[in-house]
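How it folds
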Amino acid sequence: MELLPRSPAEFGSARYWDRFFRQRGQRPFEWYGAFPELCPVLHKYVRPRDKVLVVGCGNSELSEQMYDVGMCEDIVNIDISDAVIRQMQERSGSKRPKMSYLLMDMLQMDFPDAHFQVVLDKGTLDALLTDEEEATLAKVDQMFAEISRVLQVGGRYLCVSLAQAHVLKKAVEYFSQEGWVVRVHQVAGSGDKQQFVLPVFVYVMTKFRKIPGSAPQILEICPEEQDKPMRVESAERLVAAVKDRQHYALLCSQLGKTPCREQVSLDLCDKESGKPRYTLNVVDSPSVKPSRDNRFAIFIIPQGRETEWLFGTEEGRRQLASSAGFGRLVTVALHREQHYEGMAGIQAELSGKVMELAPPGLPARQQVPFLSVGGDIGVRTVQHRDTSPLSGDYVVEDVKGEGTSYFRRLIFLRNRNVVQSEARLVAPTPLPGQKKRRKDKKKPSPAEPPAAIDKSYLCCEHHKAMVAGLCLLGGPDPLPGASLAVLVVGLGGGSLPLFIHDYFSQAHVAVVEIDPSMLEVAMRWFGFSQGDRMQVHVSDGLDYVAKLAAEAPAQYDAIMFDVDSKDLTVGMSCPPPAFVEKPFLQKVKTILKPEGVFVLNLVCRDARLKESVLATLRDVFPLLYTRRIEGEVNEILFCQPSPAGRRDPTELGARARALEGALREPGRPWDSSYVLADMLQAVEIL
C-alpha cells in the first residue's frame, strides 16, 4: 500500500488525502507529538470556554482527547479530505455532540472574522510548507492571513511542528511583523523511544492589534526543562536556539545507540542568563570491559583545574576515563561566572540532563556515580575582573590545587581555557620586629587561601625550561653571580623576569610589554616590582627591538620571547607571526651578544606553519636546540648566533647541575620539583 506522496505538492491535494485516509482506514494517524506530551503546553493556552478551530485535522485523536479530558468542548475541525471528515463524523458525532467536523479549505474559510479564540495546527503547516517556491510561499501567506482573520485579538495560533528552519523562520517573521507575540515551546519527551528523533515544538503566536510604526518584536523560547520563557533579540537568534536543541537531540540519539569514536563537547547554559554554566565532554573507553557497575559515570572537574592537562586535553580526558574504569565518562567543567551549591547541588541539577548522554544498554534506573578529586568541587575566587583595549576581558582568580596548595592565575577570557600567568600563593612572612598574632584573635579559616606570592616558584613548565636555557651561556664565572643583561618580551604576571632577577643577583632585566594594563595587574596582583635591576618598557616589542638594533647592537646575553598572539585565527598562538619573520629575527640577532642565547616560547598547532618558523630560525641562527613540553603544545627553542657554542647533552647536564647548585643558596627557598638538568635532558639539536 503506497501512502507517500509522489511529490511535495500532493500534500496540498484533497485527492491525495482522500486516497491516504481510505487506504489507511480507521487507524488514527499522528504525525508527531502524542497528547500526553502536548497536554502541558496546550493547558497553558486553551481555556475550557474557548472556541477552538483545528485546521487540517486529519484523523488525529488530538481533538477527541482534548474534549474527553475537559480541556475544551467547543471545537471545530476542518480538513480538505471528504473521506476523513466522513470518517471522523462517524467516529465522534454521537460521543462528542459539542464538537464538529467540516469539509473546508483553510485557505478559504467560511467563518466570520474574529470567530475563534484558538486556532490549533498539528503538522499542517509542516505539510504545506515543503519548499520555498513562490507558489508554496503564497499559499502559506494565504493560510496565515485566514488564521489571522478568524482569530480574535488576544487569540492564540498554536502550531505543532518539527521546526525545520525555513518553516520556523517563515512563521516567526510573518507574525512578528504583524505585531504578534511569538513564543516557541519545546515539548518534553515521554522518555520512551519516539517516532521522531527530532524534538517537537509548539509555536504560540498571540494576536495583538498592529501598532503603526516600528514596534519592538517580542520573541521568546521556552526550553522543555523550564516554564519561564527566555527573550531573544531576533528571528535569526530564535531559529538558531531551536537548531541548537535539535542538534542536541540528534547527538543524544546517536550517543544512545553507538559508542562515540571521538570526544563530544557541549555547553549547558544557565536558564536565566543564557550563558554557559557547564561544559561537558563525553569520553568513551573501548578498552574497559563493561559490567553492570562500570558503564557510566560523571566526573566533576574542581573549579579552576579545567586547564590542567588531565582535564583540559582530549588525551588527558581519555587517560582519566581509562584510569577511572568506566566505559563512558562525562567530564563536567564549571564556569567562573556561575555560582554552585556544592557537589550535592550540582548532582541534583545535572542528574536528569546527563542521563540523556547515557551509553547504549544502560538500564533505565541504573544509579550513576558522580566523581571528583577529593569529593569536592574545588575553590575559585575571582579577585579582579577588567577589560583591556589590547587584551580584552580578563580575570585574576585564586584557585585551589591539589592538597592545600593555592594558585593565582591570569586568564584572558577570549581564550578562557589557557592560563596566561600563574603564581603559587603562600602565607605572608612576618616583617622583622612584627608581633605574632595574639592567641585570642580569630584564626583564618582553613578554606581561606593564603595571600602572598611565592616568587621562588615557577608554575609554568615552559618558564622552567626557558630559565634552564641560560645554561647555554658561556664564560668561566658561575651564572648566578655573573653580570647578565637579559631582555624579556612579554610580561604577563611577571613571574619569569622576577625569578631571573631574584636568583641571578647581578642580572639586569629589561621587560617589554605592549599592554599597560598587564603591568598594573603584575604589580597589584602578582608581587611584581621595578628597581635598579628591573625595568619595564611599555612598548610594542617589534618597535623596541628595531630601535635597539639601530642604536645599540650586541648588548644582551639572553633574549626571551614569551608573548601571546591576539589573533586567534592563526594556527600559532605564541608568538605573533611578525615576531618570527626573518627581517625581525635578524634584528634580534643584532642585539644579542655573539655568545648569547635567544629563547623562544613557540605554541603552534599548524604543522606546516611550524616547519616554516623552524626553517626561518635555522636561516638566522646556526645553532638551534628545542625542548618540547610534555603534555602541552609549547615548545621552547634555544637559538645561538654561533655554531661554536654547541654543547652535547652530557656537558649541558653538567652545567645545569652546577648552575642549580649555585642557585640553591642556603636559606633561599627552592622548589624541589624544579631540576634544571631534567629540563635540558630532553633537548634536541635541530
Remarks:
- The chain is about 30% helix and 25% strand.
- The chain has four domains: 8-247, 258-360, 380-425, 461-685.
- The radius of gyration is 34 Å.
- The mean pLDDT is 84.
